[in-house]
Design goal:
The chain is mostly helical. The protein has one domain. The protein has helices at residues 4-24, 38-55, 60-69, 75-99, 106-129, 132-152. The longest helix is centred in the middle third of the chain and has 25 residues, at 75-99. The two termini are 22 Å apart.
């Protein structure tokens, strides 16, 4: 079994691949999108779930680059899918914490409200205000920060 710090280094390195693609290759042609295959989708989803569970990070940070690299979605579609995926995972994680007897205090409520508000604001700007190039740059930056965190924090 590979140790946790090695997993994080590997994942951080893998996240740099879509960062390079997003930030240094400016093609935003959506006509080259491919139709997803249900069996490959299930395999990819299972691998993302297994890997994110073993490493202890949310699967959305893995899902986004995979969708883009396989050319199943464009940046706006990826942002929408990832937002929903991360929301559902967050609710499931919070529900799991309640089963362990965690007490929900005012600070936690504030975190939930701020995170939910930020998610709504991000979804609005991503869907209605930003074009594909802005989303590519934002996603590239977020993935770079995640890779940096995995490597150095």
């Amino acid at each position: 079994m590979i140790e946790d710090h090695i997993y994080k280094k590997i994942l951080g390195a893998l996240l740099l691949l879509p960062v390079i693609r997003l930030l240094f290759f400016k093609n935003t042609d959506t006509s080259a999108l491919k139709k997803s295959n249900i069996y490959l989708s299930l395999l990819v989803g299972g691998c993302i779930g297994l890997l994110s569970g073993m490493i202890g990070i949310g699967g959305g940070i893995i899902l986004s680059p995979v969708l883009l690299l396989l050319k199943w979605t464009d940046q706006k579609q990826t942002a929408a899918i990832s937002a929903l995926f991360i929301f559902v995972n967050s609710v499931a994680g919070l529900a799991g914490q309640f089963t362990k007897g965690i007490e929900f205090n005012n600070n936690m409520l504030m975190y939930v409200v701020v995170a939910f508000s930020g998610g709504l604001l991000g979804a609005y700007y991503g869907a209605a205000k930003f074009n594909q190039n802005v989303l590519k740059n934002v996603l590239g930056l977020v993935l770079f920060m995640a890779a940096f965190k995995l490597w150095f924090v």
